[in-house]
Amino acid sequence: MNVNIAICDDEYITAEYYYGQIEQLFKNADVACQIDLFTDSGKLLAALYGEKRWDVYFLDIDMPLINGLELGKKIREVDPGSYLIYISIHRECVYDSLKAKPFRFIPKDEFQSRIGSCISDLLSDCRSETESDYVTFENRTAIYRYRITDILYVQSIDKYISLFLKEEGQTESIRYKMSDMEKLLLPHGFIRIHKSYLVNYRCIKSIQPTCVILDDKRQLPVSRYRLEEIKTEFRRLTL
User: Fold this and answer.
1) Phi/psi at 133 (nearest 5 deg)?
2) pLDDT in tens, 67-92
3) How far apart are CA 128 and CA 41, in angstroms?
């Protein structure tokens, strides 16, 4: 397991302290981690809109430009499956923070006493994945296994399908029938929006008359004959 972490606090000394403590806890748990520090919430948001993603975000609340509460909401819009942890002196904001569905809210003056159990619980949650979180399929030459939430959408091109993945725009091209891929992915929350596209409903931001817009602002074509069916299926999966 390798965990990518973003820490955002406008006080560099504080952010560095968090870095050291968190890195040591992951090391003690024998889990590799990569940590990026931000003292500017705007730069973190710009990186997100540039399709950079982290598994865990540690955020201060009281920051200039974009406060942690607003930043948390924006993170949820583009990276809904990540872990969000607030570290703040503003205990009164704990209920407001729930709108971003944080994994934890840690008061700054209790960071040292609480961060250990927070990391332990986070790692336990990460390890609780089961095979139902993955999809496995094979063709004549190979077997493939992907985490369902890592697949943004699938596109059919001739006799191949391309899987567009979350990890920095990564794409996998595999010889496979679109009809077989549809049977495999529909039970996992994928929607056929066009004869050439299957989309993970978790990544859909809006459905327009001529396209589907993803969280990362990509636009995929919609078959007008399927439009009402697509909306109905999206409602079923989200409501």
Assistant:
1) -85, 0
2) 999 999 999 888 888 899 999 999 88
3) 31
CA atoms in the 13 A half-sphere facing the CB of 78: 21
Q: What is the token pair recorded at 90?
A: 């503003």
* Whether the Cβ atoms of residue 220 and residue 153 lie closer than 8 Å to each other: yes
Kind and range of the H or E run holding 107:
strand 104-107
* pLDDT, greater one: 220 or 64: 220
Residues 6+ positions from 174 with CB-CB distance below 8 Å: 139, 142, 144, 160, 161, 162, 163
Residues shown for the chain: 239
Contacts of 109 (CB under 8 A, 6+ apart): 89
Distance CA(123)–CA(106), nearest Å, equals 17
| 163 touches 149 (CB < 8 A) | no
Token readout for 133 is 């979180």
pLDDT tens-digit series, residues 122-178: 988 877 666 677 889 888 888 888 888 889 999 998 889 999 998 766 788 899 999
- Does an H or E element contain 112, and which? helix 111-126
Please tell me the distance from the alpha carbon of residue 96 to that of residue 86, in angstroms, as a whole number. 11
Taking the C-alpha atoms of residue 49 and residue 205, their distance in angstroms, rounded to an integer, is 14
Measured in degrees and rounded to the nearest 5, phi and psi for residue 167 equal -70, 95
CA separation for the pair 76, 53 (Å, rounded): 11
Whole-angstrom distance, CA of residue 220 vs CA of residue 208: 10
